[in-house]
Design brief:
Three copies of one chain form a homotrimer. By secondary structure, the first copy, chain A, is of the alpha/beta class. Chain A folds into three domains: 11-160 and 215-389, Alpha-Beta Barrel (TIM Barrel); 401-609, Rossmann fold (3-Layer(aba) Sandwich), CATH 3.40.50.880; 623-666, no CATH class. Chain A is built from 16 helices and 25 strands. In chain A, strands 10, 11, 12, 13, 14, 15, 16, 17, 18, 19 and 20 form an eleven-stranded mixed beta sheet that branches. In chain A, strand 12 (458-461), helix 14 (471-480) and strand 13 form a beta-alpha-beta unit. In chain A, 57% of the residues are buried. Chains B and C meet through helix 2 and helix 4 of B and strand 14 of C.
Chain lengths: 668, 668, 668
């Protein structure tokens, strides 16, 4: 396992809630027996156990937990131990109502559900500190405990006075003077000039007022990341103050937009995340690429292997429709995580809850509770297979390609008011371009604009509307030094406060791109336009591709046109261009095109730029290809994400892949 | 008329609001004249007349009402007299704001509309008691008054502190100790353990907090029924304290989900309800079956004839689109109620309101106000026909078949979080199975899980997810004794607190059903799968049927497979099974199938089990068939719910049915 | 230019926000240079500049504004000077929170956005008075200032106690006694009788209570118009008290439903409005007719030429999708306003904002800021063309046809609860009938029921459900005197308090129409019915037309049937009728028919009634035809609203119209 946790093998297990079953010792016993048979070697404990730890204020009970951890450890099962701040006891909320969040509409919520505490409440921070410290003092040194699971799926935001005060202070740190903030935010717009930081309020709902002031929205989002991280620091401090130095993580979520996870890279010892792919809802190979992107996104936070902390071996219960998973899909989904850099396969949940909102959520052990259960049998099979993979040594994924996915840019795009409020296609374009790269047999590293670009051969940066400070300069240096850079429409428009760049755009990069962006056009839903191959462009591109959603008109200076628009008043003007600059090349993709375009284009670029492919042969659509080091050997993963048998004829593997089958083989 | 009211004939009339016309004596006079011509013999008075009764606090005015009742009585028209609690005067709400409801978001509403009082406000209960008692003392003994109409369409809920206190007390009665409640509700989930009943709060909105804790949701719904009934008891007590013993009802609503009407069976002397079928919005015969189910549901509350208290002779005004009714439909809709056990046909409203939200709602007398009006003419025709039916003697509907429709089970299904949050298909499956029974020429009694099953030959219980205490035992005894039991997927999963049953399900009934339910699959919208006839299964079933929405996988022990799945990874596994147990049979229908399946299956079951049909001949689709005793004679009702003439060739009737025509004939 | 402003030429320009650029003198300089090149001769200043005028309470700064106005004036550019009440400084909202609006849910909003002040707050009125007066005193006499732009896009409503008190007083003025109000509103319905005006509350949200009491809703809407106008009076008073007598306007919005703009006709010196047509979203010629209607609606407020105060030369940014405009469309859209009576073409905005919600909104000068910009070039071209049109002299549009579009009637229809709550088709029927008139080559004057009908030859009044006092009488006189009157289903149903007329309808007009309306039928979405030509009806009508949405059944007395219904139970009954009455004719159009019906019918009526057409020749679909006097010459505007070249062969013009081209020629 990972270099952080210092265990050799893959970890297999997941969230376990014995606190719900303390009166049923026969269940607890049967659980262990079934875990052992499935090769489970880790569970996460205590995530929502605060009321079991401290049923009355100041009265602590950890004996039951010790017994559970002992029992697990004696059966070869490690514990990931959670701090319980994700849900507080009723007595705590009743006595200190200020621990509960104030919603965006400025009303304090009642007790209920979970994940809804104020981030700045001094009482809550104190109570969390105490319970965390007691937990660390009592059980932190247990040899079975290998990792801290700080809280659970941090998210959301609080608008109480205390949080607003913290926001004002954060702004003061950032801008120093109110005049500078007024200038950067252009508050003269609609007479919003502030006289002091104390006048600044967090955004409100549409009903209550300030919901559309871009720099305020953007900076509030930045602040939420800051204050959540600050809350987490307080949690970790309690553990360290107790003398415990075991590593810590917190479980991230799928493409979560509420936090900039990249900012957590220096506070988590290892990245972990919870994956609930919507298998079968869409074509599974599409879901697979989407999931792959998320695994890569998580690996990219620290540029290191990570943990799959939660997932589900079959249907979850909270989606609008719960579709059962096909045989072998659980196994292949688990191995996909491994292929992309996970050192674990873990589930929510080890045993189905008996009541409440998650009682119908899939689990390793269902309410039925016996071994002759399809899902349990699939878990056993995966457990054995992971055991068979041997030492993982936190093997790296070899990459030459970086994909720029920047949360602050996404935030700015989401709130930009134009040119397509309905849907800017961020997700769609990201998926298309990522899939294009993967279909060209490349591993991909996800970076953001704070990351360095040196060391990569190909950098792809779609919809890079907002440039973080220094990004334009990184792009310039990367291309100058011989890199291949690919971007899209709506590139380099605003600065870090979402302020328009004046003059020609892409700002500071018109020479690198060899063009000026003029107008951006939003297409109505259902409109399909064409781009047409320009004379003399590469044969790797087809004569035409369709596009929709958005496109950018440009005026080239030095860039060469590869494709032109085929529709509307701008028919005949350049749509896809490439510019030679310094030692490198810069591609501009002016429209949101059909998938085939990106597949063809990247295939051409990879060949032309001489990038290494995982394997040389093109695989049939439906098979995902990845590679990763396990020990010193680069392993190739071939995964069939269809319901059909697929024949594979490659140097690394020659044979068939059954429906949802994974083959792992050595790279030759 | 009914054995409760002691009148021989059918009652014809409806809601009348002379309080809106007191300054127009010519209108009041014309009304009576038109009522008499239409054979109207009953009106409901005073439903929203509180401000006319008590325009200023403590000042009562009933003279005008006495004059109205006298006048009606002298013209042969009885009065159903309402208590006015459904809407209070402005002075009352202004002086005692606590009489107004607190919404789920914990904000007290303002004055306005109606049906929005707090159920526990002591002031409101006192004010209602006073006005009801005054009304009873002043006019309760009038010979024209035959029935009390308590309030109007009780519904909704209040979340004020007083109601929450009442909820806590109700829970204390139910669970005795907080430990027991914690155990039954499994409050350890998400750290929600309570230290005392005083800590328990009613559910909140999604914004405010506790919106998804199943046992809390379910018990809150039970409490709302309890407290509404308690409020009604206070209303009736005022009448009885005034020395009045006339029978009482309250008007129920179509499939109303906010109350468990079955719990009112011991407090209403006769069941009454308000029917607003959406004629023409869907195929009319489908609307007719849906309406028929509702009539049967109402009859099933006390297992006795009931009153149609409100309906509309033409378009209502509150639906999104108000479609006019075809000629004769008003008559046939009225007679359908009679066929299913109603002793009345009554309308909202006798005369169109002149202003406000209901001024465009259909009425016996429109704003036009003359006799040469299509709707008035149709009402006259129906009035005469009801008069011609003679004595009704509260004739019973003869039944051998029970249909289990349990409100608490429905509540649990609606909030269950999985396997299909979008739509569990409760309504759809109910309609399909009910229609299948009716197409087999059966009358049907609707029961809930508190009812006894003995005495029936066939019991149908679709989607019986939650089993009320004792229900499994009733099913076992029923089948053992020779009954035919039919159930569906998702059967016997949770207990009365929505807690999962551990081990094999259906809980306590795996032997009766001869199978174990394994996994339940939610199908995405638009997916259509097949079930295929198993070898050797009856010829009455077709080779295949389609299904959608949901299906259950099973492992049979002793059950015999009638049909198998034809799709997905579970193709070939059993879908429809029958098990012989004791003297009886138990059918398990694993999927939400197309209508034809239920029609074919019930036709087969009725024949095999030798049930009595109303008539033997199968009728064309479009004709509803019912029977009911009028006096000592069982009458057969043949009703054409299409726009075409239909030829009928049966022993009871040989001839044609015109569009929307009803024929009533003696059973041979 | 207009007779109010006393300038000869068309004005070209728009909203300009130099207050956002005070630190960038090079930008301000470049702006002037580009304005001059584009023949810009007017800008609107200061609309949201309060925090620049009064950055701290009581400290006023107008120097910068004077410099700007001087500079503009020295370059031949006039100023429309705005009062800044549309958005207040943060310090003002913080110190006097009561200036902020209370929402319908009775919660006071926070600071933010704009257009959200209380209309009755005495502090706000005082602060607005002071700033307006200071502004007038300081710069009102500047020769460059030609017009006051009072506030911005007045709209919305406040529900604070002070506004409610004002509402009660307004009701007291209107009804004198509470008894009269109770009678007119029929408050006996649902026991809502008031004891005093003090008991009356404004409507609330559906959650909070009183949301459906028609006369309350209708009168609240009337009050909102009254109080907004009252607020505006206070604004203007400040200017007049400063001794300034320059004319004033306020900018109206597209079909804005929140105010009855007709009531502002005596307070604005000239009507102005902001037009944001959704070009390209629908077929452009349809958008053109819709826009034309709005221009005519604005001209109809004072029956005089008006100002196009805002519009956009290319895509806006706040629509869900921002589609670029085709070449020449900006020019043709500007000239369309002129054709319909505008003396200006003005834009929001002259230069793109640098940040905030409107930074991506189209402008004459974009963030790019150079002259080689497609949109700037189009503006230059239009500026030159307007210059070339010469003196406009507030030339009138010659009309013989009036179209009745009454805001109070629309309000009543929107809230009427039946017969089609989903959509009464007000907009749809209005567009169909207006387009029918325009396709018959007629100019159209929009009037409301307060306007006189004398002087017109044809009056069209669709969906005239509520008749304002005296309207029926005007119709009677108009027809008696020889006019042709055309109305539709749902005619003359309620009085000014939305109270049903008793007896036969259309109220007081059954003899004029020669029929009685019996029942109104709402058709479900997707239903298409037919009307069929009656025997002997004019050849100008086709044999059949389709209809949907709504239709009215009638019983004719003297009216002659032109078409009958072809569907449903009312097949064969009259659908379209004409009645000769006095010297005139009255047409009743019973159904919401397809466009062709109105085009054919009006073509027939125009011919039969001998109305003057702008030109005699029928133009191809896609060309809009209008006429207007410029100086003494009636000019004919031919505008191609398609992407195709269209050949025109008429007496006034023989040649082609390119895509989006406008030709202006003399009427022969």
């Amino acid at each position: 396992m990972n270099d952080v946790i210092k265990l050799d093998n893959f970890l297999f297990g997941g969230d376990y809630n014995p606190d719900q079953w303390l009166k049923s010792p026969e269940i607890l016993k049967k659980d262990i027996e079934m875990f052992v048979e499935a090769r489970v070697n880790v569970v996460s404990l205590g995530i929502f156990a605060w009321s079991a730890y401290e049923p009355v204020e100041g009265e602590f009970h950890f004996e039951w937990l010790k017994e559970i951890i002992d029992n697990l450890y004696n059966n070869g099962i490690y514990t990931v131990l959670a701090t319980p701040s994700g849900a507080r006891p009723k007595w705590l909320a009743d006595k200190y109502p200020e621990v509960l969040r104030v919603n965006k509409d400025r009303r304090r919520i009642g007790f209920g559900m979970r994940h809804n505490h104020c981030h700045t409440s001094s009482v809550y921070r104190e109570k969390v500190y105490i319970i965390n410290r007691k937990l660390a003092e009592t059980l932190g040194d247990h040899p079975g405990v290998i990792l801290w699971h700080i809280s659970n799926e941090y998210g959301g935001e609080c608008y109480c006075d205390s949080c607003q005060k913290a926001f004002q202070n954060w702004l003061k740190d950032r801008y120093q003077t109110i005049d500078r903030l007024n200038d950067e935010w252009v508050t003269a717009f609609w007479s919003h000039t502030y006289n002091s930081f104390e006048q600044i309020e967090a955004p409100g709902t549409m009903e209550l007022g300030e919901w559309a002031m871009n720099p305020l929205l953007l900076n509030w989002r930045r602040f939420v990341t800051f204050i959540t991280k600050d809350f987490m620091k307080n949690e970790i401090k309690a553990l360290r103050d107790a003398g415990n130095q075991k590593p810590a993580t917190t479980n991230f979520m799928y493409d979560y937009d509420g936090l900039n996870y990249k900012k957590f890279s220096d506070i988590v010892d290892i990245v972990s995340w919870d994956n609930y792919s919507r298998w079968h809802k869409f074509e599974d190979i599409e879901v697979a690429y989407d999931t792959a992107f998320q695994h890569d996104l998580m690996r990219g936070i620290k540029h290191k292997p990570f943990m799959l902390m939660e997932s589900c071996p079959t249907a979850v219960n909270w989606q609008s429709i719960s579709k059962l998973r096909w045989p072998r899909l659980a196994e292949t989904a688990g191995l996909q995580a491994v292929a992309h850099g996970s050192d674990t396969v873990m589930y929510f949940q080890m045993r189905q809850a008996r009541a409440g909102m998650e009682k119908l959520h899939g689990a390793l052990i269902s309410s039925y509770g016996e071994k002759d259960d399809r899902i349990y049998e699939e878990c056993v099979s995966l457990g054995k297979r992971l055991e068979g993979l041997g030492r993982c040594n936190s093997g790296q994924v070899p990459v030459q390609t970086a994909f720029v996915y920047d949360r602050e840019n996404i935030w700015a795009l989401e709130d930009s008011f134009g040119p397509r409020n309905k849907d800017m296609g961020i997700k769609s374009l990201t998926n298309k371009m990522y899939k294009g790269l993967r279909r060209a047999n490349l591993n991909v590293e996800i970076v953001d604009m704070e990351d360095e670009l040196t060391g990569y051969k190909l950098v792809v940066a779609p919809l890079a509307y907002l440039h973080r400070a220094g990004f334009a300069d990184k792009v310039r240096k990367f291309v100058t030094a011989g890199g291949v850079f690919v971007t899209s429409y709506w590139f380099g428009i605003v600065d870090e406060d979402d302020k328009m760049h004046l003059g020609a755009v892409p700002h500071e990069l018109t020479d690198v791109m060899g063009l000026r962006e003029t107008e951006v056009d939003g297409l109505f839903d259902g409109m399909k336009y064409k781009i047409l191959k320009a004379q003399g462009a590469t044969d790797k591109l087809k004569e035409e591709y369709s596009f929709d959603m958005l496109c950018n008109l440009v005026e080239p200076t030095t860039a060469k046109t590869l494709m032109t628009y085929g529709s509307d008043f701008y028919a005949g003007t350049p749509a896809v261009l490439v510019n030679e600059f310094g030692e490198g090349k810069a591609y501009y993709l002016g429209a949101h095109a059909e998938d085939a375009f990106y597949e063809d284009l990247f295939d051409y670029i990879v060949e032309e730029a001489g990038l290494d492919r995982i394997i040389e042969e093109k695989l049939p659509y439906g098979v995902e290809l990845s590679s990763r080091y396990l020990g010193d050997q680069e392993k190739v993963f071939l995964q069939n994400f269809t319901r059909n048998e697929i024949a594979i004829d490659t140097k690394v593997y020659n044979g068939t892949l059954k429906a949802y089958e994974t083959v792992v083989c050595d790279k030759c």
